[in-house]
Structure formats: C-alpha cells, structure tokens
User: What shape does this take?
Amino acid sequence: MTTPGRFPEPYGQGGGANLADILERVLDKGIVIAGDIRINLLDIELLTIKLRLVVASVDKAKEMGIDWWETDPALSSRARRSELAKENAELRERLAELETGRQEEAGRSLETGHQQGADRQREADRQRGADRPHKEAP
Assistant: This one.
C-alpha cells in the first residue's frame, strides 16, 4: 500500500538490473543473433538469406578478430590515406612506364631519322654525280 506522500520506486532499483547494466554486460561479453530465411516453392529453394548480427564493444570485437571498420575507407581516415597512397604509387608507376616507352620511341625515331637523312644525302650525291658530264682521261 502506498502512502500519499511517497512515490513508487523506479523500475529496477530493488535489486533488478537497469538498462545501463544490461547494455554494459552485452557489450562486455558480446551477443550473436543468427537467423536464416528460406523461401521455397514446391520444395524448390528459391531464396536463402542468412542474417548474422554481432553486438559487442569495439575491444571485444577486436578480441574476436573482427576489425573490418579499420580497413574500410568510408569509415577510417587511416584506411582512406592508405588507399590514396597506394593509388598514387600505382599512378606514378604507370606514368614512369609511359615516359620510358615514350623516350624509347623518341630514340628509335631519332635513329630512323638519322638513317633516312643519310639515305637522302647519298641519293642526292648520286644524282649530282649522274648529272655531271664524265671527263675523259687524257
């Protein structure tokens, strides 16, 4: 029986666990919720969905070997920097390959140009020699 001057005690204070305590225990220990959804039609499986939910603190998750958020660029600035550095290195490598190929091509065309120039000079010299009249020996 309650007296008019007293309010009832809040839920959980008489030895029961409050929400903060429950949450602390769940995060400390971790909890796994697993379930499968299967859709069959005439005993033919059309769709299977496997659901797995892990609720745990970050420390507990790392202890269990779950740390995917550390390597996801959308969630981690360190992963984003790492991904950008990797992409930058790949681009520098490709640029170096392209520049090397361009220099080799320029070297080949320079050699070809020298060869073509020498061929033209010989042809011009030969034509000049054919245009000159031959002097007969005395």
The CA atoms of residues 32 and 54 lie 5 Å apart. The beta strands are 31-41, 44-55. The helical segments are 19-29, 58-63, 77-131.
